Amino acid sequence: MKLPVAELHVHLEGTLEPEMIMALAKKNSIELPYASIEELRAQYQFTNLQSFLDLFYANMAVLRTAQDFREITVAYLQRAHDSGVRHVELFFDPQAHIGGALDLREVIAGIRAGLADGLERWELSSKLIACFWRHAPASEAMELMKVLVEQKHDIDGIGLDSSEVGFPPELFTEVFDYARAHGLHVVAHAGEEGPAEYIWQALDLLKVQRVDHGIRSLDDPQLVQRLVDEQMPLTVCPLSNIRLRAVDTMAEHPLPQMLAKGLKVSVHSDDPAYFGGYMDANFDALMEQFSFSSEQLATLAKNSFESSFLDEQSKQALV
Ligand code: HPA
Ligand code: ZN
């Protein structure tokens, strides 16, 4: 199902389709432990977030040049456009790409060039959000944060992703203070596998403007009340939740409940090449299970634009 929406929770590296991984590995002379696309696809069985992340980080090593980043960005934007997306706020993981021959400036320049192509070809507007790995030390994130700001790297905001349980948001308070002080937007993954307490920390300590996932908020009625009162955006990723077993089946997915409680939820694809599809596939799966009314769909679409970092005028033009 194709609904005009804003995509606010998608990881660029999670749009790397198996065919692209194999082609990039060949072009960049990187040996992969899979002989064929089928063998690679056979790995896409996940038991939790970590089992996915292990494969995800290994595969993204095929990205080696600015042109690689430009091409995968354009390929994703084409697919997003085809599935109804009108505006994208794209995540990437800088820590995965630096340390080798490529420097951060080239990575960002490649992605930005791809985003500019998307604007020109499909009038698809975009923002770029650098996510820090919560499994890595906060001191590393802080060093990188300073480089991003001091060298005036071209990003719109920062986020926090990777392994959640055992890595509470509070570890990154200083990094987020620094980012906010420098005018960057701030978001964080919280309450995907981790407890509601991590969502409280994302709000109170990181002072985020959106919570990525946030499904575990339902465990804590006081937190739900706070999120409703503040109309805090939650970027929910249904197919991701099922494939990573954060939720057992679509029938048990909390999205209808979240909507009914008045939470500001919207639907997103997270890592579409790994989890069974892009924005359209997420809506197809939801509609098959829940047959949302046109009013519910309109709320989800409106929430996506309102939760974006577009200025008011641009939001109004898209809503
Ligand atoms: N959670 C945490 N980190 C991630 C995810 C996710 O769903 N996708 C890509 N990095
Ligand atoms: Zn994510």
Would you mind describing this structure in some detail?
With 319 residues, the chain is an alpha/beta fold. It has a single domain (5-308), classed as TIM Barrel, CATH 3.20.20.140. 49% of the residues lie in helices and 15% in strands. The chain has helices at 18-27, 37-41, 49-59, 66-82, 94-97, 104-122, 138-150, 173-181, 196-204, 221-230, 238-243, 255-260, 272-275, 279-290, 294-306, 312-318, and strands at 5-11, 85-92, 125-133, 157-161, 185-190, 210-213, 233-236, 264-267. It has an eight-stranded parallel beta sheet. Helix 4 (66-82) runs parallel beside helix 6 and helix 7 packs parallel to helix 8 (173-181). Zinc ion is lined by residues 9, 11, 161, 189, 212, 270.
What's the CATH architecture name? Alpha-Beta Barrel
Number of E-state strands = 8
Number of helices: 16
The gyration radius over C-alpha positions equals 18 Å
- Binned, the helix content reads 40-55%
- The count of domains is 1
Supply the helix-strand structural class.
alpha/beta
The biggest beta sheet is recorded as: 8 strands, parallel
Average pLDDT, to the nearest integer? Answer: 97
Specify the overall morphology: globular
Question: What order do the strands of the largest sheet run in, or round the barrel if closed?
Answer: 1-2-3-4-5-6-7-8
CATH C-level name: Alpha Beta
Classify the beta-strand content into a percent band.
5-15%
N-to-C order of helices and strands? EHHHHEHHEHEHEHEHEHHEHHHH
CATH superfamily: Metal-dependent hydrolases
> Could you please say which CATH topology applies here?
TIM Barrel
